[in-house]
Structures are given as C-alpha cells and as structure tokens.
Write a structure and sequence with these properties.
Low-confidence stretches: 1-20
Strand order of the largest sheet: 14-15-13-6-7-9-8-18
Number of strands: 18
Structural class: alpha/beta
CATH superfamily of the largest domain: Exopolyphosphatase. Domain 2
Largest sheet: 8 strands, mixed
CATH class of the largest domain: Alpha Beta
Distance between the termini: 37 Å
Bound molecules: uridine-5'-diphosphate
CATH architecture of the largest domain: 2-Layer Sandwich
CATH topology of the largest domain: Nucleotidyltransferase, domain 5
Length: 411
C-alpha cells in the first residue's frame, strides 16, 4: 500500500485505516473534504481543498468548489427514493474536483438544517437513509456519522467559525471577531462573541455555547430560532401554520398586491395566496402582520444596542439584492433603516414593482421586523451583507468541516 508506512503521508493519520477524525498533523499536506448542506430550500455541495502548512495551526483553505440544486430534500418527503437524483448530480462534481487518488480518504458529510428538523421524524429519517444509500455508491470515505440532522446551535456556531476563519480572526489570541446573522428558509441564527460579561450572565444557558481552540475556551452567544426563517415566517403570517395539506385553502395577506393570486412552495407543501382586495394593503398593515411573528419571541441582548457590526448572509443577502440595496457581485454595508425604507417603498407602491417579485414587500418587511422588533437593532446598526469572502461561500459548511477535522471542539 503506497500510503502506508510513509511518515509524511496524510493517509497514515487520516485514511480509512485509522481514526478518520484526527487531523493531518504533518507538514504541508493537501487534504479535501466534501460537505453537503441539506437546507430547507436547496441542497448544496462544498468541496474544500485544505493545505496543512503549520502542523500546530489551522489549515489554509486553498479552494472551494460550490454547487447547488433546488428544491431541498424535504420536498421529497413523500417519495424519498427521488431525493437521490440531486445528490448524484452534485457528487459528480465532487468526483471531478477531488483527485482520484484522494477519493477514498476524502470524507463526505451531509448535515441537514431546518427543512428536515421541521418534518415528522419518520419522513426525515427516510430521507437520511436515502442519502446514506447514495453516498455508499461513491468512492469517497463515508464516516460513521456521515449523514445527520444538525442542531440549530451548531449551525450558528459553525457559521461564526466560517466567517471568522475567512476574515483571519481565528488565532491563538482572539482579539477581534465578527458576529453573524444567517437567515434560512426555516430557521434564523444569530451568533457573536460577547464583549460584555453581562451578556453571558443575563441569558439562559441554552443561549451560550462553548468551544475550545488552541487550548483556550470561548463562550459564544448563539441561538437558532426555528420557524423564524423567511419562508416559515410567510407561512406564519398567513396563518397557514398547522393547516398544511389543506391544498384548497387560500390565504390572504396585506403584504401582496391587491389583485395578486399565486402560490409558493416550502418543504413538502404548496400554499395558495392572494392579496387583500377589500381590506388594507401596504407597509403599515403588512408590518403588523409580520411583527407578531418576532415580537417578544426573539431575545434582545443589550449589547446589540451598542452599535455592533454583523456579517449577514443567506436570505439577508438575497433579498437585499432583489431590492437593489446592494450589488450582487460586490455586496456591501447597509443599515437597518435601509431595509425599512425600501420595505416601505415597495409595499406602498406594490403595483409598480416587478410582478416577478410579488413577495418582495412581505420579505423585506419581515427582515425589518426581525432586525428591529426581533433583535432590537437600532436604525443605524450596520449589516455587512456578503455572499462570499475571498471566493468562499458564507455559510456554516466550512465551519462544520473545520469542526469535523477537530481544529475546534465543541464543549
Ligand atoms: O453556501 C451557501 C448556503 C446557503 N446559501 C443561501 O442561504 C439560504 C439558506 O437557506 P436554507 O434553505 O439553507 O434554509 P434553512 O434550512 O437553514 O432554514 C439560501 O438563500 C441559500 O441560497 C448560500 O448562498 N450559500
């Protein structure tokens, strides 16, 4: 076996032969990882190429290959055997990215988020079983816990790890870090390293997560709010939560153009919606509809009022692009008030806006409510909207890969 007995070889530390989750300690090694993000609205693959230059430090991320497929796994809840198609398409890309000689020691991992968390357990498990079945057809290394549902706390921590890794803040002596806001279809996450001890003292233990890195322990404030993702919020605002499966039902909202008739899909269901031809339409009425979803439910740590800067991505980014607040390629900084002002413009002139963007009023109003009435951000709180940092996708996936290789450990 060419890979055995060579002290410098990665496989000796990291092949199928020995523990798969000890990290490659030897000098300047290249290694790969395949991380699938099974989100509520899509399935995405990230193939990372790492170089271990300093045996005691974090690896350098040399490259990311990213690709995605819609819809998410949960759309196949009633016929899980069809869920494999999108995975196989993405795995083909993985095979062409990872050199053939590395296939059998390259781990393939899938973590599912809100889409599977919100399904009945039996349906979620059937989908995971299908994923496992597909993975086993491929030449990659499939570790024991290769396929699972990730809990929301880890989702928030890993997104924070990604952003701070990519911005060069993860060092033996952490000085400056960036907080993150992630808005998915099903859930939304906030994570930051508190500046004030009070922030930690004043919250219940389930808002605090500890992890260690370079022999130091850090405490993060983190929370994943389930059913507060942007698609789940639409459903809650329509009053459609819990009446799923009643396909004939039509839901009215003041957040859509008066004469609008349409539908949208989320998870395993389709929701029929219309505007409110006889009643109120527009920003004020819409704001009341969206506000009740977050008000008094989302925590407002005091520290957030002192002008913290957050990195915001996922649907925060996508809807800011849709609203022309930022350029899709460059991203950029906006303030809470920019979302509010644009929401008002769009909602009060709904007929003037692109009918392809019928939900823009609703989605921008929800984001405004989430930031202001949810987190308690001030009008001038700055959000750095980004999709990529140095060409790497802003998502929890990289942090999850870093955790997989034990560069950090969750306590
Ligand atoms: O690497 C990634 C992963 C996700 N996303 C975006 O992030 C959002 C995440 O939604 P998801 O379906 O994952 O929701 P969740 O399951 O977390 O609620 C979507 O806009 C994705 O396009 C992205 O741009 N890059």
């Amino acid at each position: 076996q060419a890979y055995m007995g060579n002290g410098l070889d990665f496989a000796a530390n990291f092949g199928n032969y020995l523990s798969p989750v000890t990290r490659p300690a030897n000098a300047s090694r290249i290694f790969y990882a395949i991380m699938f993000d099974a989100g509520s609205t899509g399935t995405r693959i990230h193939v990372y190429t790492f170089i271990q230059k300093d045996p005691d430090g974090l690896p350098v991320l040399d490259n990311e290959m990213y690709s995605s497929e819609k819809p998410g796994l949960s759309a196949y809840a009633d016929n899980p055997e069809n869920a494999g198609y999108s995975l196989r398409k993405l795995l083909v890309v993985a095979k062409s990215t990872v050199p053939r000689v590395e296939w059998k020691r390259t781990p393939v991992v899938l973590r599912a988020t809100a889409g599977l968390r919100r399904l009945p357990l039996a349906k979620a498990l059937a989908l995971l079983e299908e994923v496992q079945y597909v993975f086993d057809e491929y030449p990659f290394y499939v570790p024991a816990d290769s396929v699972s549902i990730m809990d929301g706390t880890n989702e928030g921590i890993f997104a924070w790890v990604t952003m701070n890794f990519l911005t060069g803040n993860l060092r033996p002596n952490i000085k400056r870090t960036v907080g993150i806001l992630d808005l998915g279809g099903g859930s939304t996450q906030i994570t930051f390293l508190p500046k004030s001890k009070k922030t930690i003292k004043n919250v219940s233990a389930d808002f605090i997560a500890r992890f260690s890195m370079f022999n130091t322990t850090h405490e993060l404030y983190t929370h994943s709010y389930s059913e507060k993702g942007i698609k789940a919020a639409r459903i809650a605002a329509l009053g459609a939560s819990g009446s799923e499966g009643l396909e004939w039902k039509v839901y009215k909202t003041s957040c859509l153009p008066k004469n609008y008739e349409g539908e949208f899909q989320f998870g395993e269901f389709t929701y029929k919606v219309t505007g409110n031809p006889e009643g109120y339409t527009g920003y004020k009425a819409c704001y009341q509809e969206m506000k009740k979803i977050v008000k008094g439910i989302i925590q407002q740590p005091n520290e957030l009022k002192d002008g913290a800067v957050f990195f915001a991505f996922s649907y925060f980014f996508d809807h800011a692009v849709e609203a022309d607040l930022i350029d899709e390629n460059r991203g950029g900084a906006v303030q809470t008030r920019d979302f509010r002002k644009r929401a008002k413009e769009v909602c009060n002139k709904m007929s003037m806006f692109n009918p392809m963007k019928a939900f823009l009023c609703m989605d921008l109003t929800y984001i405004t409510c989430l930031l202001k009435d949810g987190y308690g951000f001030k009008e001038n709180t700055v959000l750095e909207l980004i999709k990529k940092v140095n060409n790497v996708e802003a998502s929890w996936a990289l942090g999850a890969a870093i955790n997989y290789f034990k560069y950090i450990s969750l306590l």
